[in-house]
Amino acid sequence: MKISKDWLLDYVDISKHNFEEVCELITTRVAEIEGVHNVSTPVKYGVVVKVEEVKNFELENKKNLKFATVFDGNRKYTLACGAPNLEKDMLTVLIPPGGYVRKVSPIKTKINEKEELHEDQLADVIEDDLEQLVLVEIKSFGEQKSEGILVSEAELGISSNHDGIINLGLLGVVPGDKLDKLRLYEDQIIEIDNKSLTHRPDLWSHFGFAREISAVLGIPLKRDFDEVILTVQDLLNSRIDSSNKNIRKIEPVIKQNEGCRRISVLGISGVSDCPSPLWMKRRLFAVGAGIRGILVDSSNYVLHDIGQPNHAYDLSLIKGDNLIAKAANDSESFTGLDTVKRSLSKQDLVIADSESAVSLAGIIGGMNSSITNGTTDIVLESANFDPVLIRKGCKVHQLRTDSSVRFEKSLSPYQTPLALLRYSELLEEAGQKISINFYADTDNISTNKTSSFAHYPSKVDFSFSYIRTRLGGVPETDQEIDNILTSLKFKISKNDTNNLTAEIPYYRATKDIGIEDDLVEEVGRIIGYERVPESPPYILSTGSSRTKTQEAEIKIRDSLSSQGFTEVYNYTFSSDQRTKDLGYDLSNAIEVQNPVDTNLKIVQLSLVPNLLNVVSNNLKNQSLFAGFEIGRAYSKKTDTSNSKSDSEVLETRLLGCFMTGSKKEKLANAVPEVKEGEVFYSLRKAVSRLSFQLTGREVEYASFDTTKTSEVFGFKKWMHPGRAAKIILGDKVIGHIAEVRPSVLDTQTERVVIAEIDTNNLISSSTLPNSFKEFSKYPESFFEISIVMNKRVEFSTVKTFFFNELRSTNLNSIDPLSIYTGAPMKEDQKSMSLNFTFSSLDRTLSQKEVNDLRDLVMSLVEKGGYSLRS
Amino acid sequence: MSPIETIYNEFLTSLGLTTSLNSQLDLDNLVSTVDISKLNQKDLETSRLHFLGKKGVVTDLLKSLGKLDPAERKTFGEQVNTLKTNITYILDSVIKSLKARDEELLLAEEWIDVTLPVSIAAGSNNIGHLHPLSQVQKELEDIFLGLGFDVVDGPEVETEYYNFEALNVPEWHPARDMQDTIWTSLPGTLFRTQTSAMQVRAMKARIGETEDSQPPLRIVAPGRCFRYERMDATHEHTFYQMEGMMIDKEVSVGHLIFFMKNLLKEIFGFSPKIRLRPGYFPFVEPGFELDIWFNDRWLELLPCGLVHPKVLEHGGIDPKKWQGFAFGLGLSRLVMTRYNITDIRHLQAGDFRFLNQF
Questions:
Q1: Looking at domain A2-219, what is its CATH homologous superfamily?
Q2: CA distance B81 to chain A (A)
């Protein structure tokens, strides 16, 4: 929101204060200032002149140019001017050589005042938007010299109007006058961060800021509306011109109590919608409001002046004798002043005449009753609406206005008649010969008919000591606290020293102030938090810790980074199509209602889809890399019956890791099988290490039943069926690891292996103690046997078979030594050399025992479906 | 037989289909009857040239259209186009099946023993790197652990209650505008917009009736947050915060200032000049923005304040007996400041050229 310094000066005299310091105080005591801008309003160079002579000027390419002689009361100037409205005898503004004019650029209009907070964004660089001023110099047109420029409103910074030069016709100035006669001054604009005003309905206006500045600086208000707020009604009544009996009176009616709290209306006749005074235009322009004619401009002016939205209707276009706040009819059609036609419903609150809606309450007025050039009688409405209703309306109709922004902050219903008063004052100031015909209101303070105010607390109990404790011991005296609250217009009454009551000023009772702690803030900010003495909090040192999951995640990071993996962070969102294509069942996927990216419509069910994107993106720059992500996946809970949680969402904590390797470069000395699966085995090793570091136990791997795809860690479509395995800890499948199908990544040259593990399983398993197993002090005995089997028999099958058969022996371990394929074995066969190790806890095995064991093993080969290699 | 029928039959025959001119099968069913075992990709590409290439037979038919009279041209033209579309569709589908088959053949070929113990050199020849956010987060956690704070953790897909209502932000409160929310399709479930969502969760998790389960309570809650943002160099829809909260007896603004000064000293390695100014957050009262003097100007660093009595009540804590302060650190922002990262999007892009610098 924009606040004009010139405008503030109407209410509080800060001219003797350093303006920078005032702004600093606003920031530290009131609300955040985003920036202070000098408005390029070169009014001080301007002087009123009379056009004495206009001559056509013939120049090849400047057909429209004329030459004028103007008089400033002292001397004459001759200058070139292209304005279509240049006329002999007109009064206008000259900027003589040496002065400046505002460079007129294409008009920028801010349509929507949107509150934005980017909390995590680097602090904005404060922009200095001082628009460029252009130096006025003596110019030559052939023999003719042009001394200065006659200016448009745009060139003076009064409005965006650049259609012609300013005509000062009837404004009571004479040649030689400076522009301060027209109340045109230099100005500065304070840009307030809207988010810091969310809780302060009273600060959405110049008077509101003046009121705060007055309290902060301890200087009185030049004009204080609060003092008359309860007598405005009487004042309005006293100004009614009862002589005109022919005027129709409009009575406000509230039919829907929920949304509307008060309506005040004022009937004014004798108006005409001429251009507003230059000073009013300039102020409205400076705070970013549009400029139309005096009847609408005054309405906007009042909004920025005292923060009360209001709306002027052409009385002749209002049907019947009432303005009624009520629910709209279903499918009622309504065209707003923005010319957009909207379809209303019963949820919408409107102000209606006897026939139809004349405004969408608190948001926008209607075209059907709007001010026109011919308007002579108006009815001005100033009302108070429920903030929630206004917000809902804005959301439904996708429209936010200066009015709705204020109403949604919860304005005080006390101030509605004040807007009527200010509006009529402005018309009079602008020289309109108006008469006030009627004033009507749904509330009446003098007759105590004030239903709308009952919504809000009027008092808050507090104690000086509570405030002082919260502020670390300041202010030291009760008197100072009392003074501060009084300066903020709280009325303090003492029940006893430690039991007081503060009557909340009307403009802050609607939402902002309600509890004692709110007074702590009031006192704290006015004294300035720099006065609060810092003191160490008393902390009884107890053992503090991370959660087990967080500890585990730190260990995972340490383990994998030490093994050469780089950590990546991915998004939680993922593509539904991609996830489905990779083989995941979307039936329990959670959808994003308003996705930030139309490709990212679901919450990820697994880290794999996004990790695959990371892999393919990085493959564009390099071929060999390894990485991991610790992340979370979410799905709908399928079984909520025995869950204590209040959410229908199942969160899974996952680790995903990946590794790439070239198909060409193979480990030099590895056996063929290892060469083939180099990347797979490398990642598998990292997973094994990691798991051991976390749980103290070794994980195992087993191939998949590739038809079981529905399990969380079952076989998925993205996997290479011949290179995929479950990861098993104890008897639980905790993850899977697999090479990625070439077609998934569209790479023919690299192999990519991905593993995904549920990290919660690594944590819960880690609580199981590992008990020490005694080992033999005697030398081990071993022998080697080569057996032939089908190529696709897994080592684990062979090992399990022999371990089962040799249960009763002293078998220690079976290790593969080498694998061989090729002649003389058949195409589908391989030979595996196995080392069998035996040991006894109490002795060295004799040679005979070893020989017997060897014979036993050889005799078992056939039983296992294998054969001995000859 | 019309030239169109002739060509179509020729095409179908080339795929090993008996002429099925009168067949009622739609194209997908037709494709499914093709026996791809006898086909290969190369032959099909040749076939494509023969029928659809620049000098292909279908193209010839199209060229011949010009000679026909207008009425005939229209009907015949449509038929040729249908022929062309059908042949293209069938060829594409069959080639797709072939590719899938070839992949299956390759995959069937490439079996490894996933259970085989192998001895293999280091898993990766690279030096591993931790994400800068992880590094900074851990550092901060360690500082807080030293200050007697527990590190806690909560869901990123959060309920509306914990993210808003429990924090004194009812529905339709204008403060909801301060944070554009990303919602899930489940009612009342959203992507948390702030780690402050952990405040009442942490209170509820710790606070009970017994003596042991009363405050003091000191926690930090780091984690991922989300907001509906259009992305650019300084805006991300996914970012990281760390919420801190301390609840004890007689907690004052003075305690908060002391604590924040010491914390910032630990974070920055020096004592920055700070100031508190009013800031509005519905879950604290009073609420502040804490600025630090940095590079000759005030830099908005973090929001903080005394915990609002209503929030304490939501957490089952009696605000008459206990008070607290809370603050929110922007982890993403700290990381960017520390490492001079000017584009926030790097943090989530997963690019190793970025990640391997940390």
A1: Nucleic acid-binding proteins (2.40.50.140)
A2: 31
